[in-house]
From TrEMBL:
Alphabetized PANTHER family for the sequence: PRESTALK A DIFFERENTIATION PROTEIN A, PTHR43162
Tree of life domain: Bacteria
Name used for this protein in its record: NAD(P)H-binding protein
NAD(P)-binding domain residues: 10-173
InterPro entries: Ergot_Alk_Oxidoreductase, NAD(P)-bd_dom, NAD(P)-bd_dom_sf
Organism: Streptomyces venetus
Length: 278
């Protein structure tokens, strides 16, 4: 059995903690790293990098997600490969495909491709778990009214368990080097249909409330988000409303040889009583 640890950046996040758990289920050691995790790792503190990559052969990479993410990722990838890391699995996003003309948006992916390590890139759609684990949607779900700027557009929500399963396969198996896996769930759903399934699983009333773009922006600002983030979220919902995300992707099937999990499975398995209003 291979006992070389696998470094999991963002190891306490939605996908990272699932990657760590699934690695453990395979008998592999996950070195969980984050600013507050068992292994401290801070993208902006390069003094934390050496201990994190020591003795590691593969890294699950969730980038800094700030304005300097690509630059920091390029520096880290070079640093890691010089110290013997041979494999990088990078969590990107399918939304990049909506801005295919804008090369700057692909800078982080390029940093991984040009690292010199074997690489695999994951581009998932919206996570199912955003409804229960993300402060954008979870507080509305807990409150019983999910405020949305769109009621008709569809999205093929992907279960974070499937993202983690693909990542673990790419981190531990042969045959995934140089692959770009575009990940989606098995069907297209409106946000309202998702909320209805959540209400059914939770056994209580939860309803979608569709508002216009400006009302939605005010809703987010009122919850403490900056206005530029609210405008960005409206842009993302515009792509859904316009049908630009209304297609399925085959990444889960290509990587794992099976179909992705359905949203209904996620809704049924989630403890909705534990979802926070905060």
């Amino acid at each position: 059995m291979n006992d070389t640890p696998v470094l999991v950046l963002g190891g306490t996040g939605k996908t990272g903690r699932r990657v760590a758990r699934q690695l453990a289920e395979r008998g592999r050691t996950a070195r969980v790293a984050s600013r507050s995790g068992p292994q401290r790792f801070d993208w902006r503190d390069k003094e934390t990098w050496a201990a994190a990559v020591e003795g590691v052969e593969a890294v699950y990479v969730v980038d800094e997600q700030g304005p300097h993410a690509a630059e920091l990722l390029a520096d880290f990838a070079a640093f890691a490969t010089r110290r013997g890391v041979g494999r990088l699995v990078f969590l990107s996003a399918r939304t990049l495909e909506q801005w295919a003309h804008d090369e700057d948006r692909f800078a982080a992916e390029r940093a991984v491709r040009e690292s010199g390590a074997q690489w695999t890139i994951l581009r998932p759609t919206w996570f199912s778990q955003n409804f229960s684990e993300d402060r954008l949607l979870a507080p509305d779900v807990a409150a019983g009214e999910v405020i949305l700027p769109d009621g008709q557009g569809v999205e093929p929500f992907i279960d974070a368990e499937d993202i983690a399963a693909v990542a673990v396969a790419a981190l531990t198996e042969e045959g995934h080097a140089g692959e770009l896996y575009v990940l989606s769930g098995p069907r297209l759903m409106t946000f309202g249909e998702c909320v209805d399934l959540i209400a059914e699983a939770a056994g209580r009333k939860i309803r979608p409330v569709v508002v216009d773009r400006e009302e939605y922006a005010r809703h987010l600002v009122g919850r403490g988000y900056p206005r530029d983030f609210a405008d960005f979220m409206n842009e993302l919902f515009d792509t859904i409303r316009d049908g630009r995300t209304a297609y399925l992707s085959d990444g889960v099937r290509r990587a794992l040889g099976r179909e992705p999990r359905d949203f209904r499975e996620y809704a049924a398995e989630t403890d909705w009583s534990a979802v926070s209003k905060q």
